[in-house]
Design a protein that fits this description.
metal-binding, transport, single chain, metal ion binding, 2 strands, 4Fe-4S, Alpha-Beta Plaits
Length: 84
């Protein structure tokens, strides 16, 4: 499942550069995660890097975008193929 940034975000700017898929971008008020690009770092790391660096723990799983680990790996492979 993709991740989501909640309104507890303090716009500290640490999550965006950590995302290997460039799924995080600055929104109107807080940072946002594009669910089409979020693989929870599957294919890159063992843990979602944005969650690891977030100082306020405002990046939970997005219940509206539920995906299995296999689906996340397939998405990762599609993203990598498109970048090649």
């Amino acid at each position: 499942m993709a991740l989501i940034i909640t309104d507890e975000c303090i716009n500290c700017d640490v999550c965006e550069p950590e995302c290997p898929n460039s799924a995080i971008s600055e929104g109107e008020e807080i940072y946002e995660i594009d669910p089409a690009l979020c693989t929870e770092c599957v294919g890159h790391y063992d843990e979602p890097q944005c969650q690891q660096v977030c100082p306020v723990d405002c990046i939970p799983h997005d219940a509206d975008n539920v995906e299995s680990r296999d689906q996340l790996m397939e998405k990762y492979e599609r993203i990598m193929a498109a970048q090649a």
